[in-house]
Amino acid sequence: MTKIDIGINEQDREKVADGLKRLLADSYTLYLQTHNFHWNVTGPLFRELHLMFEEHYQELAEAVDDIAERIRTLDVEAPGTYKAFAELSSIKEETSIPAAEKMVEILTQGHEQVVKTCRDVLKAAQAADDESTVALVSDRMSVHEKTAWMLRATSKK
Q1: Is residue 130 part of a domain?
Q2: Which Pfam families has this protein been placed in (predicted)?
Q3: Is residue 139 one of the residues assigned to a domain?
Q4: Using one digit for the tens of pLDDT, what is the confidence trace for 93-151?
Q5: What's 44's DSSP letter?
Q6: Helices in 41-99 by DSSP H: which ranges?
Q7: Is residue 4 included in any domain, yes or no?
């Protein structure tokens, strides 16, 4: 394979890719959590939450692919194991099956954490003049902000 020459130096590409790895790990962890809750939600809000969680995990499944491919575009290997994701993610794994209301709270916090991770990656991408990563991360941030809002609205009494 030929050497990469996209106008971003190696050090900046690696710094941006490191942030994207954290974003990938957070997104994948949130995907797994959302899928788990989709399968296991119960109670009066079952149908609404079951369908909402399905929309969310399907969107996240596409997102993790986009993020991993951006890492590869920067000529850096993308993480792809549970172990790597666990080490990189700032989202705590949920090992129990909480009540539906708690699921909504946990997922809200997860989406908000992804927004914070996006903000960190955005700074590195802007500093590197990496507009492709800026666009990807800005779009991801918008999706997660909106999803967190929708989840918060679901839990309002």
Answers
A1: yes
A2: Ferritin
A3: yes
A4: 899 999 999 999 999 999 999 999 999 999 999 999 999 999 999 999 999 999 999 99
A5: T
A6: 46-73, 82-88
A7: no
The residue type of 126 is Q
Q: What is the CATH number of the domain that holds 102?
A: 1.20.1260.10
**pTM of model > 0.85:** yes
Using the Cα atoms of residue 139, residue 91, residue 112 and residue 49 in order, give the sign of their dihedral: positive
CA–CA separation, 157 and 155 (whole Å): 6
Which 8-state DSSP code applies to residue 93?
P
φ and ψ at residue 81, rounded to 5 degrees = -120, 155
Integer Cα distance of 79 and 39 in angstroms: 26
Banded pLDDT at 1 (limits 50, 70, 90):
low
Could you tell me if residue 2 is inside a domain?
no
Q: What number of residues does the chain have?
A: 157
Nearest residue to 115 via CA among 148, 72, 154:
148
d(CA 66, CA 48): 28
Segments forming the whole domain that contains residue 48: 10-154
CB–CB of 127/50 below 8 Å? no
Tokens for 108, please give them.
């809200």
pLDDT in tens, 110-120: 999 999 999 99
